[in-house]
Write a structure and sequence with these properties.
By secondary structure, the chain is mainly beta. The chain contains no helices and 4 strands. The strands form 2 sheets. Strands 1-2 form a two-stranded antiparallel ribbon. A two-stranded antiparallel sheet has the order 3-4.
Length: 77
């Protein structure tokens, strides 16, 4: 979280090896992902939580507890 923007980055790598009688095959995989989201005003940035389950990223954030007092004078005619 930086300047009202939530940045999400993920990196993965792996390798696969197949050994047969006549050959050996090796594969290597590396990938990355980056996303940025501008959050609306009023989000409590100190209480953002995230967890990863079953291939999905869950992000939980709540509203800030700021209550704005509005004072307004109304003239009665």
């Amino acid at each position: 979280m930086e300047n009202g923007i939530l940045n999400i980055q993920a990196y993965t790598s792996g390798k696969k090896e197949e050994i047969k009688k006549n050959y050996v095959r090796k594969e290597f995989l590396t990938s990355s992902l980056a996303r940025s989201f501008r959050l609306p005003e009023g989000i409590d940035v100190s209480n953002i939580k995230a967890h990863y389950r079953n291939g999905r990223l869950y992000i939980k954030m709540g509203k800030a507890n700021t209550v704005k007092q509005m004072n307004k004078k109304v003239k009665v005619q």
